[in-house]
Design brief:
31% helix; three-stranded antiparallel β-sheet; TIM Barrel; 2 domains
Length: 465
């Protein structure tokens, strides 16, 4: 196993091992500061991060606004306070070693405002900003304003080329690196384009070589590429280290840091990860963002799967084969189904799925009265956590709406991510994970349910295992 050599990241030479940022309250100041303390790069999440009371307890994010716009402003305020709090914890925990990065999602709510607020309130504590989930053109401009490095998360050379031409070439000196996130292997939201087949993974090596060629054409010979998604044993990536075709690279870990002593997630979450089997992580498109995402195939995902299967097309008037009437709502307004779909609906209704709900695609899904009520409450309680949400039809633009009806085939992502990290129900909430998470159960390092410290994990990674 080749020895990892220090790499210049965010203005300091550190080990090229990076903690990947993970959503709502999962990557915290404690976890990221602990990574930095080992001489690596720690990344805390700036997406609705926790902040604390005087006793050090997380403050529940309770929304009091009567309108979505009022709750959206509350969410932005919470996010800024949380980001500043996590940056301070990370700085103190790091002891001045390593580098501290903050991860944000461009398609989350008010990302530009939140970045400004956190970087202003935590000056000197954050060395870099990583940003994905969309095309974050403006992140370079914001990073330059505060003299911090920026790291776009992309899944193809084509995406980076577009970012470079439109914005990044103006701030080349602060482009600290490019995160290549494998769209078939990474956890959380995946950057699959319309031209890529989710069922046909492409080998990462050729895609990363193409990215490096593109970067070299931009004069970025020595700018590191972070390899994210699918990294477990470094010995499996030995040919990537000191490879002249790839140039300087670092290895980013997203799922493995969840199973550490410093990770804030509940014990049930860690135990579940340690017991996963091949195929237990499911690439799906249920997210209200519209992106593909990878999550543990638990009861939450199963319910979404079968909910989407109980779906038929309808028309408002008898048209072609749509001849069978179906009464909708308290007023009994008619819509029309095909005879075959009418028979399917009768079976679902007999099984208790009696409530039809309209989707933006002129289809109906059928759910129980209890699930229908839950969906409607969640949609009405929307706090605008995304720039645009297909589940609630919220948009942070002037109109406050996407212009489409709310989509009951999806879910409130803010609700479920807050629930799983704070309450620990790993069956009935969304549980993001990378596709290699099944390797916990096969890796002797985790035998008998062993949970390492961050320091122990980093030492283990350096051995090649």
């Amino acid at each position: 196993m080749k020895m990892l050599q220090p790499l210049l990241i965010s203005g300091r030479e550190v080990l090229p091992i990076v903690e990947g940022g993970k959503g709502v309250s999962v990557s915290t100041g404690l976890s990221s500061g602990s990574f930095a303390a080992t001489g690596c790069v720690g990344t805390f999440s700036g997406v609705n991060a926790d902040f604390y009371d005087d006793a050090g307890r997380p403050v529940p994010q309770v929304y009091k606004g009567k309108t979505r716009r009022e709750r959206y402003e509350e969410l932005v305020s919470y996010a800024i306070r949380g980001g500043i709090a996590q940056a301070r914890v990370a700085h103190e925990t790091s002891g001045g070693y390593g580098r501290i990065h903050m991860n944000v999602l461009w398609e989350a709510a008010a990302t530009a405002r939140i970045l400004h607020g956190v970087l202003e309130g935590a000056k000197g504590l954050i060395h870099g900003v990583t940003c994905g989930a969309g095309m974050p053109y403006r992140v370079s401009e914001i990073a330059a304003k505060f003299d911090v490095f920026y790291y776009p998360i992309i899944s193809s050379a084509r995406a980076f080329r577009a970012l470079w031409k439109r914005a990044y070439h103006r701030y080349a000196d602060l482009l600290g690196g490019v995160v290549y996130e494998d769209p078939w292997l990474a956890g959380g939201h995946n950057g699959l384009s319309n031209s890529e087949d989710p069922a046909r993974p492409e080998p990462p090596y050729e895609r990363v070589v193409e990215l490096r060629r593109t970067m070299r054409a931009c004069g970025l010979n020595d700018t590191p590429i972070f390899i994210a998604g699918g990294v477990w044993y470094l010995r499996e990536w030995e040919d990537w280290i000191d490879n002249p075709d790839l140039g300087p690279i670092a290895f980013q870990y997203g799922t493995r840091p969840v199973v550490t002593k410093e990770s804030p997630v509940p014990a049930a979450w860690k135990r579940r990860l340690l017991s996963l089997k091949p195929g237990d992580v499911y690439l799906n498109r249920f997210s209200p963002t519209g992106f593909y995402s990878s999550a543990v195939n638990n009861a939450f995902i199963h319910e979404l799967t079968v909910r989407n299967e109980r779906q038929v097309a309808y028309t408002r008037e008898p048209v072609g084969e749509h001849t069978e009437g179906l009464a909708m709502g308290a007023r009994g307004r008619q819509v029309y189904l095909t005879p075959a779909d009418s028979k399917r609906v009768a079976v679902w209704v007999a099984a208790g799925f009696t409530e039809p709900m309209k989707t933006p695609d002129s289809t109906l899904i059928f759910v129980t009265p209890e699930k229908s009520a839950e969906i409607r409450v969640d949609q009405q309680s929307c706090m605008g956590c995304l720039s645009a949400c297909r589940f609630s039809n919220w948009s942070e633009g002037e109109t406050g709406t996407t212009g489409k009806i709310a989509d009951p085939r999806s879910f409130c992502i803010q609700k479920t991510l807050q629930n799983i990290v704070h309450d620990g129900n790993v069956e009935n909430n969304l549980m993001f994970a990378g596709h290699n998470a099944y390797r916990f159960s096969k890796d002797p390092f985790y035998a008998d349910g062993f949970i390492p410290s961050v320091k122990q994990l980093v030492e283990r990674i350096q051995t090649g295992d």
